[in-house]
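Margin note from the TA: students keep mixing up input and output lines. Inputs are the sequences; the output is the structure of the whole complex. Example:
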Amino acid sequence: MARRHSVRRQRGFTTIALLCFVLLYLPIGTMVVFAFNAGTTVGAIEGLSLRWFVTAWNNESVIEATLRSLTVAPIAAFVATIAATMAALATTRTASYRGLAFKVAFINQPLMVPEIVTAVALLVVFSRVKVWTGYTGIGYLIAAHIAFCIPFAFLPIRARLETMDLSLERAAADLYATPWKVFCRVTFPLLWPAILAGFMLAFVVSLDDVVITEFIKSAGQETLPTYMLGQLRRTVTPEMNAISTMFLALSIAVVTLFFFLSRKKD
Amino acid sequence: MATASEIATAAARTDVRNRWWLATPALLIVLLAAIGPLVVVVLYSFMVKGDYGDVKYWQFSLDGWFSVIFERDVFDDTLKLADAHLIILWRSVKLSLITTLVTLLLGFPTAYFIATRDRRWRDFWLFLVTLPFWTNLLIRTFAIQEVFRNEGVVNSALLQLGVIKRPLQIMFTDVGIFLGMAYVYLPLMVLPLYASIERFDFRFAEAAADLYASNFNVLRRIIIPMMRPGIIAGSILVFIPSLGAYVTPRLLGGGRNLMLGNLIELQFGQGRNWPLGSALSITLTGGVMLALLVYVRAASKSGSGQHG
Amino acid sequence: MRLLVTAAASIFAFLHIGTANAEGVLNIFNWGNYTSPDLIKKFEEKYNVKVTITDFDSNDTALAKARQGGNDFDIVVPTSTFVKIWIDEGLLLETRPDQMENFKNVDPRWVNVDFDPGRHYTVPWQWGTTGMLVNTSVYSGDPNTSAIFLDPPAELKGKLSVVPEMGDILTLAIYYEGGEACTSDKTILRKVRDRLVAARPTWLALDYPSIEKYTAGDFDAGVNWGGASMRVRLANSHFVYGYPKEGYPIWMDNVAVLKTAPHVENAKLFQNFVMDPENAAMISAYARYANGIAGSEKFMPEEMKNAPEIVVPAKFLDKGKFTPACPPEVNEMYTKIWTEVLK
């Protein structure tokens, strides 16, 4: 019997999805166009030039801030994703128990406090630690970023685990596979898309954080967002667009490479 | 030889052990870098406000909490309900609800679309969703302004096409805020949705279709229930941060109306009333926490059948 | 597993970078996009010092951070309104700039200022005014009044932008109603509140100054800072900057050294360094405000020398006043009024 229609296609979904992508990329496209503006504003195109790329490239503080962001975000996202995956397993691969709801709420807590409050509280606590230990390095930034990244990785991973079928894991366990082997061979491959989604979310959230970083950064620890916050009160030039465009190009290049490498393996 | 019940007890014991040590790193990090500071905030809410910000340490007072709900009128000193705070709270809740709804309406079809692509292309589409968000929030917000401004891309295009005669005022209106917020929070919705639907076995849906279920019914009876955890995770991820958001509403809404985030920021900044700011944020956190607790309870009860 | 160990090891190695507090370092904590890179380069080369610049975005954030300590900052640049708080709270080091070699260059007008009489702590960085920016092709009336945003003419309604600064806006409104800055006179404050509540619906936005939104016609007028207004005028000559005759705030950002500064000597060198007219001119050329150092004019860019936004015309000179830090109870009233206006 032939089906009258494909169930994969819901009416209007593809249109909305494509519209969504257009909406997502319209501002980004605008940003890229203004990066090539010869004029000094992000409001009116006065011809094309590469001058803002040159300016940005020669601006030491921008490059430094970008590199710092690119250091903090992957480390924070990586650690947060590992911790979140473990916690997600602990709160799903088990019978319901007392304290489960509390644990879930506990782990999601960083999400529930407005950023400015976490920022002020961390400022108070970290400053004490900084004075006591004399260590004023970038570790504080990373620690704070890990903490507020955890819920962003935890929620999608846990959501995925909740809908995942247990029978494969059970079968493997019945065949005397150790829990670690079950995880590596069965759970992890099944969970991978959620882990990737969680990591990407955590990475993006860390890359974007401005309020918390603004409060806990020490001397010389400017990240790209806090650097740009400083520009907000004054005039925004296409220099920021140029940096973002370079950033975008870099990430596209890295991911494309990754994409093709993983393709080959298939 | 071990009996079946012995195996079961042993398994239960590992289970108990696992659920603690697996969760430990996350719990510890959150405890140190988020709960600990929160305790500081709770303490602050009970202290006397400092003259120029901060608090007077170890001098206790309930003023912070008192001013969450009541205020003394600036002019005649009468005590009244702090209606300004309530209006702002309601506005923020409304904004967050609408933002969540808009992202869900846009994000659900998008996640569905990605999940129904060929397996090899799914990561690519997923990446396409997150890519714009590798650009800093402030830059993105400025870019959105460029798109929706009176002389921006959208208005120019519509004018050119003759759809409208005068530019639409989108910037600095509520519509501008909703569009901007939806834009900013979209991936937080799409990614959990995708994570929960990606493995969906479409043979279920096909079986239903074979039994003459309409596409809509397949969606309603099979796909949406399957995606429920993802929908809830995504809604939490969008709703809660947008409740405290203040950069986007301020830039796109023109900042004429305070949001909860702005109100709290004002107390920690120019208002120099840290106890009130602390009390306001604990009220917010407590409310959200309570709602979440109720939800997880309910969800784990209804879901317990699935996991056995 | 080996991967994990390597990762952990490299993280620890990384964490130790940047913690070295070697000699020859100076950590500046200043407003964002405010410190001329040329000035810093010159300072670094002259004294063989490595300078780091860290930004803050509001006086309150800077104060909160400095008070908590442990950030390694040497130099901080608070605004006039806040300097007295910093001094009173014992955060600043009394470096006695008045005894420094280049102090003779400081414009006498800025030596005996209320917030730091005789300049025992601070050195002028830049100063400016908060006034009205008006597009004369839309509205040709008098721009020199706060009525532009408090009782706007019909042409400007719905096209106004106001800087989101509680202090500046309340001060302008209080002057407009005939009061003094930091007044606690309730009859005046009631008028101020009613005036602001009535005016708010006519504002399009509370936004930081952005040139293109004025030049592209999103805003036709607004409350703006002098230097930002000059940039708008240079892009579109229809714009004029007005000094409200009812009174307007003057502000000055000042270079100070923190008591907890790890590199005090370098910080003092920097204070002395910025009082040199040629160096001060570099600050102004970058951030576009006047600097308070006599003799720096001749090193300034041409378009700044006679800009009416920077050089206050004589007839408006006496209308501008420094705003002091308001007492806590007054600030509390102001916050309530501000919340009431924006609720």
